[in-house]
Amino acid sequence: MMQRGASIGKAAGATLVELVITIVIISVAIAGVVGAFSVISGRSADPLNQTRAVALAQLYMDEILSRKYAENTPVGGSPKASGCSIVTEESDRADYDDVDDYNAISGETPQNANGDALAASAYSGFLVTVRVSCAGTEVGLPSDDAKRIDLTITDPSSLAFQFSAYRANY
């Protein structure tokens, strides 16, 4: 039995104000985490596009560098062709036989060496541009002894990846 005059103990618990403040703090924290995840998920395709751009650039550079220095370069490359001029003789990709011919590629969808489109699912939205220029003096050679190949791969998000290589006249 309770004695008269004895005080009743204070009940433990949270007040309405404390509950509202807790809900507000948790809501702000969740909003920050969700915002961070949305930024991350928006960029999740970037590494995949970068990997595909590098693979595509390697495919094109391997093909271009395997071709003759110039139209009049003999089989085996010796004696070397004289002079450096950029002349695109071929219009059909399957007929590209020297480095200069690739200078005609500008904003095209990716193709293989025969001019057939590459797998649409893997390279959908990618564009390829190739520029060839005389560049012997850039690498310490006479002006007619090297060509610079600048390859630009543009991914579906319009991000451009630049690649360069030199083809020597040997």
Outline the fold blueprint:
Layout: H1 16-42, H2 46-65, H3 120-123, E1 127-134, E2 146-154, E3 160-168
Antiparallel strand pairs: 1-2, 2-3
Explain how this protein is built.
The chain is of the alpha+beta class and 170 residues long. It contains three helices and three strands, in the order αααβββ. Helices cover 30% and strands 15% of the residues. A three-stranded antiparallel sheet has the order 1-2-3, covered by helices on one side. The longest helix has 27 residues, at 16-42.
Gap between N and C termini, in Å? Answer: 111 Å
Radius of gyration: 32 Å
Can you tell me the residue ranges where pLDDT is under 50 for at least 5 consecutive residues?
none
* SS strand fraction: 15-25%
SSE succession: HHHEEE
Please report the total strand number as a whole number: 3
The portion of residues assigned to helices is 25-40%
Q: In summary, what is this structure?
A:
It is built from three helices and three strands; from the N terminus they run αααβββ.
Features:
single chain, 170 residues, alpha+beta, three-stranded antiparallel sheet, 3 helices, elongated
